[in-house]
UniProtKB/TrEMBL annotation:
Residues 1-95 form the CRM domain. SMART domains: CRS1_YhbY. It comes from [Clostridium] methylpentosum DSM 5476. Gene3D superfamilies: YhbY-like (3.30.110.60). This is Putative RNA-binding protein, YhbY family. The lineage of its organism: Bacteria, Bacillati, Bacillota, Clostridia, Eubacteriales. It comes from the Bacteria. InterPro entries: RNA-binding_CRM (IPR001890), RNA-binding_domain (IPR051925), YhbY-like_sf (IPR035920).
Length: 95
C-alpha cells in the first residue's frame, strides 16, 4: 500500500508518460493482462486508456487490472488511469 505522499509523487511523474496500452471493445482479456505485466515490470509506472467502444469505465478497468496484476491504482482521470507496481529485482522509482 502506498501513502498519499508517494501517490502524489507518482501522479506527478505520470503526467509526462505517454499512454502505453489501450483497452478496447474486447475488454480485459488474458492477452491484455499479459501485455500489462510485461510493460509494468521494467517501468513500474504505466498509463492506460479505456476507449469509448469498451464496455467498462476507466475505474472498473483499473480495479480489474490491479487485482489481476497485483499493481496499485495511482489515479483515474476520465478515460485514463495510472498503475504502479514496484520491480522487486531492480527498482526504478524511489519513493
Amino acid at each position: 500500500m502506498i501513502t498519499s505522499k508517494q501517490r502524489a509523487k507518482l501522479r506527478s511523474m505520470a503526467n509526462e508518460l505517454p499512454t502505453t496500452i489501450q483497452i478496447g471493445k474486447n475488454g480485459i482479456t488474458d492477452e491484455v493482462v499479459a501485455q500489462i505485466r510485461e510493460a509494468i515490470l521494467p517501468n513500474e509506472l504505466i498509463k492506460l486508456r479505456v476507449l469509448e467502444t469498451a464496455m467498462l469505465t476507466a475505474r472498473e478497468a483499473a480495479q480489474s487490472i490491479a487485482e489481476a496484476t497485483g499493481a496499485e491504482i495511482v489515479q483515474v482521470i476520465g478515460t485514463r488511469f495510472v498503475l504502479y507496481q514496484p520491480n522487486p529485482e531492480a527498482p526504478v522509482i524511489e519513493l
